[in-house]
Design a protein that fits this description.
The complex is a heterodimer of chains A (311) and B (384). Chain A is mainly alpha-helical and 311 residues long. Chain A folds into 2 domains: 3-267, ABC transporter involved in vitamin B12 uptake, BtuC, CATH 1.10.3470; 279-311. In chain A, 73% of the residues lie in helices and 1% in strands. A two-stranded antiparallel ribbon of chain A has the order 1-2. In chain A, helix 1 (3-29) runs parallel beside helix 5, helix 5 (132-151) crosses helix 6 and helix 6 (153-163) packs across helix 8. Chain B is an alpha/beta fold. Chain B has 2 domains: 25-152 and 289-353, Rossmann fold, CATH 3.40.50.2300; 154-282 and 366-381, Rossmann fold, CATH 3.40.50. Helices cover 43% and strands 22% of the residues of chain B. Chain B is built from 13 helices and 17 strands. Chain B has helices at residues 2-19, 41-60, 84-97, 109-112, 116-122, 154-168, 183-199, 217-226, 237-249, 265-271, 289-302, 308-327, 332-339, and strands at residues 27-34, 64-66, 69-79, 102-104, 126-128, 138-139, 142-143, 147-149, 173-179, 202-209, 230-232, 255-258, 279-282, 343-346, 349-352, 365-371, 374-381. In chain B, the strands form 4 sheets. Chain B has a 7-stranded mixed β-sheet, with helices on both faces. In chain B, helix 2 (41-60) packs across helix 12 (308-327) and helix 9 (237-249) runs parallel beside helix 10 (265-271). The longest helix of chain B has 20 residues, at 41-60. Chain B starts with a helix and ends with a strand. Classes of the chains: A mainly alpha (311), B alpha/beta (384). Chains A and B meet through helix 1, helix 4, helix 10 and helix 11 of A and helix 1, helix 3, helix 5 and helix 7 of B.
Chain lengths: 311, 384
């Protein structure tokens, strides 16, 4: 395979990974499902483009450096998510999910109508700034921040909210606050991913941030395994590359894509890495759990045999 | 464990299959991409079939002579679902892995715009078929070195529609209904509006809907109340048929007009009497003697009628072959150079690629009218 082609896929996977990591905190660790994160990506992409696009083009931007675009995109998405969270985070379960879905679609429809940014015709002329090293650096920073957040007191509180909201509240955890932190962090991640996406494509169009994109992100998180950062990394890499790897099947490739995802979900019902981490400690823990499970299985079999013998 | 092994085996097979392939010395590889799945698959399939058919004909005739040597042409086509992100992936694959010398397609402007930086890195030219957004080839006054096209552009199409409506049909009050979520529709609406107002006409109603809508009655009622002379509907045949039917139900009798999103077998079967007597701007006249041969060959080979895209990709192939022979070598950079200023008699008209804009210069639009369920050619019309 050619490096030029592989590099492109890696860059896309890396960009998806930024958004997926954020969503992993919200869905995997805090237990809130979102089908509107493409909306936050769109906010990031458009704000980022607004900062970096040269003032002489049409639609015009401010012509600032890429770093400003990244910060603005992330911050913008975070601020919007705060207000969205204020309104929707009191909704329980599926209702929150539907609210995010509505939000994502609303963002896209608004952008379709805003002629300032080109409307549905899109915004060409975004500078090509997303390089592979830059994406990898942001990915690494994103993983380190997330891993530390999850292991901190705040992270444990989020996991408690996921496991049993009522119990967490009784234990004195401010459920609303931790849901909010998870939502804002995930939105910032999605916003940054959006900025990188726009500066990789050099062209943004509201159509790119449809519900399909949101579900794609959620599928990657679930496929990788809820509550696992390494699962999100693997999931983003695999699921971004899979449609390209499947090109040999021509028009059947999307059928095979679906079949491959189903096959892997059947063989690993908790996702690729459900609840596990690819760290030395995580692997040790997984091995011990596996041993214990086999032991328990053997014992129960022995027990059954014993009972059968008695009968 | 067995299951995991099975999953790994499946993935490995897939990867290995993906790596397979390779070419011979005397074939020239040409890429094509477009939607073979999704809602635009009709057009994508039609384009790719046409490319394959034409290449087969060239090869059966002994190949193409380039620089004193005969070469066979090989078409490598990929599906991108009509998705911009996949368009970028596919072009990277075509240029990086398959090492094609040129790419034909896509039909959608939203897919043709983001591939420009990839083409520039790989130094491979692309000839778009019906991507009518001006920004496909020219961005902020600078022509993109590797993007070309064989169709007219939205400002031109909008001007033609507005000019014909005002000058020939005598309309002074126009209503517009358009799909706000579609780039093509928004573009055409903008340029129709500008040109119609420049002529001295008035836009009495400017209504929009969103992709996926099936009920247009609220917008149509407003349009009816505004009492226009003509209704401009710049979107695709499915919605055109639905909205036309509903307009007639509401008692709107005015003439409707559209762009190159209209022509399709389905428009007549779905729209029927509702679209009778309506006009649209097209890339060609279906009854033109120049296109009959291609239509017949396509029908004979694939057993169905060609769509509009087929005619344009046919000419894109002609332009590419001419540029290849002019360049004298199978090299993307040389072909891109040769494309500038090349002149080819295509079936959709005389195509002369302007070096300044990479658009075909002076290509006239055809005005078609629907009469008794047939597309009847009115005239070749150039916007003033």
């Amino acid at each position: 395979m050619d490096w030029f082609y592989i590099q492109g896929i890696l860059m896309l996977a890396g960009i998806n990974l930024i958004a997926v990591l954020g969503l992993s905190l919200l869905t995997g660790f805090t237990g809130l499902f979102s089908f509107g994160h493409a909306g936050f990506m769109a906010i990031g992409a458009y704000l980022g483009a607004f900062m970096t696009v040269s003032p002489t083009t049409s639609p015009a931007g401010l012509g600032l450096p890429f770093a400003v675009g990244v910060i603005a995109g992330g911050a913008g998405a975070g601020i919007v998510s705060y207000f969205i969270g204020r309104i929707t985070l009191n909704l329980k379960g599926d209702y929150f999910c539907i609210a995010t879905l509505g939000f994502g679609e609303a963002i896209r429809l608004i952008l379709n109508n805003v002629q300032l940014f080109g409307g549905s015709r899109g915004w060409p002329g975004v500078p090509y700034k997303s390089t592979l090293p830059a994406i990898i650096i942001v990915d690494i920073l994103a993983v380190i921040f997330l891993a530390n957040l999850v292991r901190s007191r705040h992270g444990r509180n989020m996991i408690a909210v996921r496991e049993e909201e009522l119990a967490a509240q009784i234990a004195g955890i401010n459920v609303f606050k931790y849901k909010m932190i998870a939502l804002v962090v995930s939105a910032v991640y999605a916003g940054v991913a959006g900025v990188f996406f726009g500066h990789y494509m050099t062209f943004i169009q509201p159509k790119m941030f449809s519900m399909t994109k949101s579900t794609e992100l959620t599928i990657i998180v679930i496929f990788g395994g809820l509550g696992s950062i390494s699962g999100s990394v693997l999931g983003a890499l695999l699921l971004t590359a899979l449609p390209e790897i499947l090109r040999a099947f021509e028009i059947w490739r999307l059928v095979f894509y679906g079949a491959a995802v189903i096959l892997i979900m059947i063989s690993r019902p908790k996702g690729l890495m459900g609840g596990m981490e690819l760290t030395p400690a995580g692997l040790r823990k997984a091995r011990n759990e596996r041993k214990a499970r086999i032991l328990a299985l053997k014992e129960s079999k022995n027990g059954q045999n014993g009972e059968a013998g008695l009968g | 464990m067995k299951r995991t092994l099975m999953a790994v085996a499946v993935i490995l097979t897939i990867v290995l299959l993906g790596c397979a392939g390779g070419g011979k010395g005397d074939t020239i590889k040409v890429g094509w991409f477009g939607a073979l799945t999704g809602d635009q698959a009709v057009w994508g399939e039609n384009e790719f079939n046409t490319v394959k058919m034409l290449f087969e004909e060239y090869n059966n005739a002994g190949g193409i002579e380039v620089g004193g040597k005969k070469y066979k042409l090989e078409a490598i086509g990929y599906d991108n679902k009509g998705d911009a992100q996949e368009a970028v992936n596919v072009v990277k694959r075509l240029t990086g892995q398959d090492k094609v010398v040129a790419i034909l397609g896509p039909n959608a402007s939203g897919n043709a715009i983001p591939i420009a930086p990839v083409l520039e890195q790989a130094k491979v030219p692309d000839i778009a078929t019906v991507a009518t957004n001006p920004k496909v080839t020219v961005l902020d006054g600078k022509v993109k070195p590797y993007n070309f096209r064989v169709c007219f552009i939205d400002p031109y199409q909008g001007a033609v529609a507005a000019g014909y409506a005002f000058d020939k049909l005598g309309a002074t009050k126009a209503a517009i209904l358009y799909d706000v979520s579609d780039d093509y529709s928004q573009g055409l609406r903008e340029f129709f509006k500008i040109n119609f107002e420049k002529k001295g006409g008035v836009i009495v109603a400017d209504e929009s809907f969103n992709a996926g809508d099936v009920d247009f009655r609220p917008q149509l009622s407003k349009i009816k109340a505004a009492n226009p002379d003509i209704i401009f509907m710049p979107y695709f045949f499915k919605e055109v048929a639905l909205s036309a039917n509903q307009a007639r139900e509401l008692g709107i009798t005015q003439v409707m007009m559209g762009g190159d999103g209209w022509p399709s077998e389905q428009l007549i079967s779905m729209g029927g009497a509702s679209v009778e007597g309506c006009y649209f701007v097209n890339h060609l006249d279906y009854a033109d003697p120049a296109v009959q041969d291609y239509k017949a060959r396509y029908l004979a080979k694939y057993g169905k009628e060609t769509e509009l895209n087929g005619f344009l990709v046919h000419d894109a192939v002609l332009v590419f072959v001419a540029a290849l022979q002019k360049a004298g070598k199978a090299n993307g950079e040389a072909i891109a150079k040769a494309l500038e200023g090349i002149e080819v008699q295509g079936i959709t008209g005389n195509i002369k690629i302007s070096p300044e804009t990479h658009n075909p210069e002076g290509k006239d639009a055809a005005i078609l009218k629907i009469v008794n369920g047939q597309y009847v050619f009115q005239e070749k019309y150039a916007a003033q």
